[in-house]
Input
Amino acid sequence: MDRLKNKVAIVTGGAHGIGAATVRRFREEGAQVIIADLNRSAGEALSAVTGATYLPVDVSDHAAVGRLVDDTVRQYGGLDIIVSSAAVFHAGPIDEMTPATWNEVMAVNLGAAYHLAHFATPHLRQRPGASIVLISSVQGMIGFKTFAAYAASKGGLIGLMHQLASELAPGVRVNTICPGTIQTYPETPLDPDTERLWADRHLLRRVGLPIEVANAALFLASDEASFITGHNLVVDGGMTVMGD
Ligand SMILES: NC(=O)c1ccc[n+]([C@@H]2O[C@H](COP(=O)([O-])OP(=O)(O)OC[C@H]3O[C@@H](n4cnc5c(N)ncnc54)[C@H](O)[C@@H]3O)[C@@H](O)[C@H]2O)c1
Output
């Protein structure tokens, strides 16, 4: 219950899905948590049940992320953990993808990690055991059709993680998580055939749950991972090693 006692964490995209599961898990383990998300209604609802603080932030906005970090440090006296989970998921064939789509995906999915690291680093360096966890994707590791911008942004996060792990060592650990298919919209379930199709792309023959990624984020953020940095933790039910 106390794996994150006295820690202060920002979780971007924390109002829904994997981010929301991470907020819940971190609160259970004693952290002060800031939900940074554009979805005000979901953010406020989660804040009410968990005691986390909700701040409406567009994480693709450099100055807004600066204010997020400043407000967090002012309110809680420091910052120990960043989990960057906010993302947009636009898909489409490359010859139909507009510059606007490409730029938006890069700005949210990859740009936010830069903004967060840029502003948070001076504060993280002051805290023992500080940790950054970037939520990437198996799509940053293997090829899928029609997800060029998304896959490029997720691959970019892995490259950024390698760089930051080197640059911020020894004080700040930096890791990525690559989830497989995670059921983050249970309110709009897939039809059984599509669900089976996705399930069969994983060795474990099912899609994952947000809590299964949140538990990985908890591990990487906690002192249990004190000798782990520069690592890409694949949480994909065996999707990326499936040969058949
Ligand atoms: N769900 C999956 O199958 C899956 C698989 C691999 C990787 N991932 C990654 O996991 C992370 C979480 O995915 P999810 O399925 O939980 O997504 P989700 O859609 O459930 O939640 C994403 C959250 O990000 C927020 N957000 C989007 N743009 C934002 C912005 N500009 N500023 C602030 N907040 C913003 C949304 O409001 C939402 O609450 C993402 O990085 C995603 O790429 C998800």
Summary: The radius of gyration is 17 Å.
